[in-house]
User: Fold this.
Amino acid sequence: MPLMNLRLARPAHIVDINRVDGLNGIHRDNGRLHVGALVRHAEMEQSTEALASLPILSQVIPMIGYPAIRHRGTVVGSIAHAEPAAEWPCLAVALDAELVLRRTGSQRTVPAGEFFQTMLTTTKEPGELLTEVSFRTDFDSYGFYEFARRHGDFAVVAAAVALRFEEGTISNARISLAGASDRPLRVPEAEASISGKEAAAELATRAAETAMESVDPLEDIHGSSEYRRELVGVAVERAVRQAVEGSA
Assistant:
């Protein structure tokens, strides 16, 4: 629908999938949270299983649009749309999401990091339907920060952080950005800067500085590249601080 509103898509036919069996439901299995194609944002926000599996959702979902959008829009739809400033693609990249693509007679699973190509463009092929996304749930602590012009707008820049700990030391870090590039972006340099370190407040500053040095933000009417670079630092610092403090 957004692409049609922008006159970027003019489909000859529109198919309503709301009554297709097997595209709904939220369940946890083998350390992953599985979400069907028909699950609305609001359903995730109200799901005790989803919130228990991924506490970061309580921070992320309220930032998505406004109530009418959250009650009609879907998690998988947002990921398939591939808006680089949207929350779900950013979270999918941070949480090593796996995307199930189906067509007549075949099915394949694509890691989120390989799904997004550029703005509004993915590796989904003609005839394929994105039917499910599953997120890793084995992280110990999370952080999320978003800066938008108005509440409910797409992020100018947002950062999602997920950390695993072993005996007080960060054993695995995931840091991803929305709004900083033509796709949701992981920042492995910033992840490496805090991996193997003991949880401490100064890690947030270290990750922020590394992230700012590692990205080349896009420029548009909402902000220059340099402005977005500063926002990357702010967003990463605040999200990492949340995750570190949440591990205490």
